[in-house]
Amino acid sequence: MSYAISNTEDAHLGFILLSGGPDEGDCLVRSLPADKKEIETPESKFLYSLQLMGELQWERVKEEVRIFEPDGDVVLVERAGRMIGSRFIYTVEALS
């Protein structure tokens, strides 16, 4: 499964690619802003830092999908069409 990541202004910022079983597995974050003015935003920089970490772990708990940093901290949570992080909020669209 994959998600397109946007900021609150609906600017496309990248993707999250999930693999594994139905309730847990590995994921990759890709920072890929559609507009060059989004490259230097805090959101894009944060996504790029996650991209540099390589494979991250994810788990599903009911309707939430949690993505973890290597040290175990939750960095992103997808819930009800929103990506919620400690630093910002993203709109998330599931891609088919």
3D structure, described in words:
This protein has 96 residues and is mainly beta. The chain has one domain. The protein is 11% helix and 51% strand. The protein contains 1 helix and 8 strands. Strands 1-2-3-4-5-6-7-8 form an 8-stranded antiparallel beta barrel. It is globular, with a radius of gyration of 12 Å. The relative contact order is 0.25. About 8% of the residues have low confidence.
Describe the secondary structure blueprint for this structure.
Layout: E1 2-6, E2 12-20, E3 24-31, H1 42-52, E4 56-61, E5 64-68, E6 74-79, E7 82-84, E8 89-95
Antiparallel strand pairs: 1-2, 1-8, 2-3, 3-4, 4-5, 5-6, 6-7, 7-8
Q: Terminal Cα separation, in Å?
A: 7 Å
N-to-C SSE string, H for helix and E for strand: EEEHEEEEE
Assembly context of the chains: single chain
Radius of gyration computed on alpha carbons: 12 Å
Q: How would a textbook summarize the main sheet? A: 8 strands, antiparallel, barrel
Please state the overall shape, judged from the principal axes of the Cα atoms.
globular
- The SS-based structural class is mainly beta
